[in-house]
């Protein structure tokens, strides 16, 4: 018998909605619809659990609890109180946080909307349980998200619960941050766009904390981001990378979760047996290099990623052709523009002299600097990196 389907919103990085939808489809998601920074879909419980263990792109996977007409403060208050069996979904000993988005009718201020949802919940608890939950903004037991929008019949509210109280982009391998690191899920999405499958060498000449390489290799080896790396390879200890609040929901199925954890760990074990081409990172700064090494070790990928101190401008690639990926400094946060101009110019010259036949993907936040490469991009994918408008540029080096 087919499990009931849940309405789910995956919150994902801007411009990576299509890649995120493809990833969710592989977990059995149906009726996929890409929105701005989100993908709407329907999933059964197994797909939802698998996405928590294995999806690389979402920040959050929100499950719909209820939708109701809502244009006013009183409709919001009453609708929230009736949206779920709160005895089960929010017993007073659990802490919570409320997020809000959108607007409807007189409710046009997200902060106020979130506050009103919180009031409705704690008032309900006081009335029915005689005590109330604490609000915890950092590490709550439950995260609720209320979205206001326009439905076919008028203003509507949708109340969701997050399956993980901490953001899924935090894999847990990156104690050391390097400089201006990419978020792990953004790096994973960028690597998905390159299509690198481990068959040819992969080099990042400005690797920083090695996020692009770590995400690329763990994807190809099928290491599940929801399990701690050592745990995935030693299936006797399936330690989770975080607390998954969906495992404490009233309708949680821990037997199902357990079987999916074992399947994910076995998949990772099998994935780790396959040979992959050399993966190399260069970093000039010895301190950042050390941090990158500890990240690679924490991700359990030392056997596959070779990090070296070196100057990306003098890159001598291994026998190829292969794929180059990088996110060189671009001025918004690091380095000064004139020095950077010469760095890009030198790098472009090196590529043309020594990397003919390779393909390059470069994350640029500064079009003037990328012009200094002296090459023409064959593809430009707009992406937002920490609020900075960037392009993931593809070049075929001749
Ligand atoms: C924007 S950061 C890369 C961030 C990286 N993608 C991550 O997620 O951590 C750019 C990195 O290039 C390094 N770098 C700057 N000039 C370099 C050079 N000539 N050769 C190699 N690395 C260089 C910096 O030290 C910095 O770590």
Structural description of this entry:
The chain has 398 residues and is α/β, with parallel strands linked by helices. The protein folds into two domains: 6-162, 2-Layer Sandwich (VC0802-like), CATH 3.30.2130.30; 184-221 and 275-396, 3-Layer(aba) Sandwich (Rossmann fold). The chain is built from twelve helices and 14 strands. It has helices spanning 17-26, 45-54, 73-82, 86-89, 110-129, 184-194, 211-220, 229-233, 254-271, 286-298, 337-354, 367-371, and strands at 6-11, 30-35, 38-43, 60-69, 96-102, 142-151, 154-162, 202-204, 279-283, 305-309, 323-326, 359-364, 379-385, 388-396. Strands 2-3-1-4-7-6-5 form a seven-stranded mixed β-sheet. The protein has a seven-stranded mixed β-sheet with strand order 10-9-8-11-12-14-13. The longest helix is centred in the first third of the chain and has 20 residues, at 110-129. It is elongated and about 75 Å long. It starts with 5 loop residues before the first strand and ends with a strand. Bound molecules: S-adenosylmethionine (SAM).
Show the helix and strand layout.
Layout: E1 6-11, H1 17-26, E2 30-35, E3 38-43, H2 45-54, E4 60-69, H3 73-82, H4 86-89, E5 96-102, H5 110-129, E6 142-151, E7 154-162, H6 184-194, E8 202-204, H7 211-220, H8 229-233, H9 254-271, E9 279-283, H10 286-298, E10 305-309, E11 323-326, H11 337-354, E12 359-364, H12 367-371, E13 379-385, E14 388-396
Parallel strand pairs: 5-6, 8-9, 8-11, 9-10, 11-12
Antiparallel strand pairs: 1-3, 1-4, 2-3, 4-7, 6-7, 12-14, 13-14
This protein binds S-adenosylmethionine.
């Amino acid at each position: 018998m087919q499990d009931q389907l849940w309405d789910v919103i995956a919150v994902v990085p801007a411009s990576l909605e299509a890649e995120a939808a493809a990833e969710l489809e592989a977990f059995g998601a149906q009726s996929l619809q890409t929105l701005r920074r989100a993908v709407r879909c329907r999933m059964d419980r197994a797909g939802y659990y698998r996405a928590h263990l294995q999806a690389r792109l979402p920040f959050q996977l929100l499950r719909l609890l209820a939708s109701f007409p809502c244009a006013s403060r009183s409709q919001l208050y009453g609708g929230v109180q009736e949206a779920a069996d709160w005895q089960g979904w929010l017993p007073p000993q659990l802490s919570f946080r409320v997020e809000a988005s959108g607007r409807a009718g007189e409710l046009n201020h997200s902060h106020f909307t979130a506050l009103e949802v919180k009031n409705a919940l704690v008032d309900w608890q006081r009335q029915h349980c005689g005590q109330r939950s604490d609000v915890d903004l950092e590490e709550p037991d439950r995260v609720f998200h209320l979205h206001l929008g326009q439905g076919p019949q008028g203003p509507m509210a949708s109340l969701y619960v997050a399956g993980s109280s901490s953001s899924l982009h935090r894999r847990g391998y990156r104690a050391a941050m390097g400089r201006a690191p990419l978020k792990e899920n953004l790096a994973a999405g960028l690597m998905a766009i390159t299509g690198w499958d481990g068959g040819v060498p992969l080099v990042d000449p400005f690797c920083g904390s090695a996020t692009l390489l770590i995400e690329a290799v763990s994807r190809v080896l099928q290491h599940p981001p929801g399990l701690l790396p050592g745990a995935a390879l030693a299936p006797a200890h399936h330690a989770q990378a975080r607390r998954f609040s969906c495992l404490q929901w009233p309708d949680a199925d821990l037997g199902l979760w357990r079987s999916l954890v074992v399947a994910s760990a076995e998949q990772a074990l099998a994935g780790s047996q396959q040979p992959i081409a050399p993966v190399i990172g260069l970093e000039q700064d010895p301190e950042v290099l050390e941090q990158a090494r500890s990240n690679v070790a924490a991700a359990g990928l030392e056997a596959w990623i070779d990090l070296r101190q070196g100057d990306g401008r003098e890159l001598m690639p291994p026998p190829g052709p292969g794929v180059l990926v990088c996110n060189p400094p671009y001025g918004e946060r690091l380095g000064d523009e004139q020095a950077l101009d010469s760095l890009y110019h030198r790098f472009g010259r090196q590529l043309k002299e020594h990397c003919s036949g390779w393909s390059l993907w470069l994350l640029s936040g500064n079009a003037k600097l990328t012009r200094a490469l002296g090459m023409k991009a064959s593809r430009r994918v707009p992406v937002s990196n920490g609020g900075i408008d960037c392009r993931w540029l593809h070049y075929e080096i001749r």
